[in-house]
Design a protein that fits this description.
This protein is mainly beta. Helix content is 5%, strand content 58%. It is globular.
Length: 616
């Protein structure tokens, strides 16, 4: 779905675990003028020209965190909150500014990975390995104009490594607490016209009890996962390129019975995606065309005491065209068409499709001012059509390093396959709710971003507001119906400072006021306050140290008492032994905090991990 032709790696340095240098620390401070993003507009654009709130996690950020899974890395992003039913494979979801995981689009190399077979079409982050990821962009707020259904909360765009000329790669081995072992391997290479990147990773752990051990649950719930991925980029002709991507992951997760309490429950998950993009430029590159076709599938099977208790299979097929035409240096027109088909054979034989048209104009003819206006039209074969607009504005003052921005937009979420076909027989119903309509949202935000001290300091503040109407929820009179609404507003603050050449401080704070529009009560599993802070230090040449703290305030739960507020401290270290060998290690939950993310489900105690990475 995305055009990102020139976001490429230029060396094998990160693969080989190159020592952290002062330049590497400095470049992580956001430079408004130099940072290039693709998710906000579906084509490359400087951050200074983007009128939406977007966060970027670089490959260095991801590698320095040392986390196995993407969900743990995303906890450092302002506005994002994590809910997990226990670690090591426990189902988990990410919320953006209070919007549920069902209302967020997850892209992996442009292929939407949301699980069609789940009741709401959400994505389970518990099996998404962090190995081989080059970049993560998080676009917040309603983004249906470019990404269609599900993009009410925003978009999380995960971009894996591309190949590079030559040949190289890396191997890692890591072990630690709970008899946890992890290994990764990747190779990349190519010529000036053909490049490839291949990776494999695996993890095996005895795990912890999913049901909290402090409630008397002592049985450890094991977990294993392996992931294969690949990306090939080729120049077919001077103005004609192609990209092929594929990813396959399989996992086994032991979990506990309802309560939660110790039990003999096992779940297997297989995830597969494949996609192709074809890039064709005309008029000396002023008219850029991207044709895409992709397919994703998620299969889940659970067993209780050795007997199958759940089976689900969801598929999504997507064909897409997106064009960008630079009419003149100040005026750019983007437009596209899309066909999407979703199916869940374990739910129904019926397939559902959406046909879409989109157009947006971007004008930047007055100094640092950039204005965009766009409209999207979607036609669903069950409920009919939807139209969603968006307006954005940004103004960048290069002399002072200041950017102010604002936007307004609408979003929608189509009913899931399950919701469209569910018949509540115990409610006395004989057919699904044929009048089910999409969820609809309206949101706006205003913000300021500032570079100071010769780009050694970055500060930002954003105020956001969003109303979601026609939310789909269970009803005894219809099965599923449009009966709920949510109101959210809040403030995000961010600081990124290069204190010294060898010392960097980053921090962010999010205040979220998310309320149930029907009851006026706080929205379940949405913390009012979130804080993340990290101090990074190159103690001596080649030795990198980092100390971070994550705070999450009290959350309400729909089935239990509120989950208490918690704070967790983590420590990271890595040392460059030689040009091609790096030792790394971490201590999670340094202060041994006892906390839960979901009521009744435990989290790991103080944990130790040590690993080695070698490059070739």
């Amino acid at each position: 779905m995305l055009s990102q032709r020139s976001i490429r790696i230029s060396t094998f340095a990160l693969l080989a675990g190159t020592a952290v240098s002062t330049a590497a620390l400095a470049e992580d401070v956001t430079d408004i003028a130099e940072e290039i993003v693709v998710t906000a507009t579906r084509y490359e654009k400087p951050l200074s020209r983007v009128g939406s709130s977007i966060e970027v996690l670089s490959e260095m950020d991801i590698q320095n965190r040392q986390n196995y899974f993407v969900q743990d890395i995303l906890q450092s992003v302002p506005g994002l909150s994590l809910n997990g039913n226990g670690s090591f494979g426990g189902s988990s979801s990410i919320r953006i500014r209070g919007a549920s995981s069902e209302q967020t689009v997850i892209l992996i190399d442009g292929v939407q990975a949301n699980d069609v077979s789940t009741p709401g079409g959400s994505y389970d982050f518990s099996n998404l390995e962090a190995n081989g990821i080059e970049r993560i962009e998080v676009l917040k707020g309603p983004q249906s104009i470019l990404y269609g259904s599900d993009a009410i909360g925003g978009v999380i765009n995960i971009i894996t490594r591309e190949g590079a000329e030559g040949f190289g790669g890396s191997l890692t081995a890591e072990g630690g607490s709970y008899n946890t072992w992890r290994g990764t391997g990747q190779i990349l290479g190519g010529s000036d016209r053909l490049k490839f990147s291949l990776g494999i990773s695996g993890i095996d752990s005895d795990g912890i009890s999913k049901a909290d051990e402090n409630d008397g649950n002592t049985e450890a719930d094991g977990y294993w996962n392996y992931t294969l991925r690949g990306k090939v980029n080729a120049e077919i002709a001077p103005d004609f390129d192609t990209e092929l991507v594929a990813r396959y992951a399989k996992s086994r997760n032991e979990y506990d019975s309802w309560g939660p309490a110790d039990g003999d429950e096992v779940g297997y998950t297989e995830e597969f995606l494949i996609g192709g993009k074809w890039f064709y430029d005309l008029d000396d590159g002023k008219f850029r065309n991207t044709f895409s076709a992709n397919y994703s599938e998620t299969d889940r099977e659970n067993f209780s005491n050795g007997v199958q208790s759940y089976l689900a299979e969801g598929t999504r097929w997507n064909a897409d065209y997106f064009g960008v035409y630079e009419i003149d240096p100040s005026l750019t027109l983007s437009f596209g068409a899309q066909h999407e088909e979703t199916a869940a054979e374990t739910v129904t034989d019926e397939k559902f499709n959406i046909d879409s048209l989109v157009g947006e104009v971007s004008w930047q003819g007055l100094g640092g001012l950039t204005l965009t206006a766009g409209l999207r039209y979607d036609d669903h074969n069950r409920y009919g059509d939807t139209t969603t607009p968006r307006l954005t504005a940004s103004y960048y003052m290069a002399d002072s390093g200041t950017k102010v921005f604002a936007n307004w937009g609408e979003g929608f979420k189509a009913p899931s396959v399950f919701q469209l076909t569910y018949i509540c027989t115990f409610c006395g119903l004989s057919e699904p709710n044929l009048g089910l309509q999409p969820e609809e949202s309206e949101g706006w935000e205003i913000g300021i971003e500032q570079n100071l001290l010769e780009d050694r300091l970055f500060v930002a503040a954003t105020w956001f507001h969003q109303d979601i109407d026609n939310m789909i929820d269970f009803s005894y009179t219809a099965g599923y119906d449009n009966i709920a609404r949510v109101e959210t507003q809040g403030l995000e603050l961010r600081l990124d400072a290069q204190v010294l050449d060898t010392l960097r401080l980053s921090a962010n704070y999010t205040w979220t006021d998310a309320t149930d529009g029907e009851t006026g009560e706080q929205l379940v599993r949405v913390p009012e306050h979130m804080i993340f802070g990290q101090l990074e230090w190159e103690a001596v040449e080649g030795l990198y140290l980092a100390l971070s703290i994550t705070h999450n305030s009290e959350e309400t739960d729909p089935y239990a008492p509120p989950v208490d507020a918690w704070s967790r401290v983590d420590f990271r270290a890595k040392y460059q032994v030689t040009d091609s060998i790096e030792l790394f290690g971490r201590v999670d939950n340094v202060l041994d905090e006892e906390y839960q993310q979901v009521s009744g489900y435990g989290t790991p105690d103080r944990s130790f991990y040590l690993g080695v990475r070698t490059g070739f």
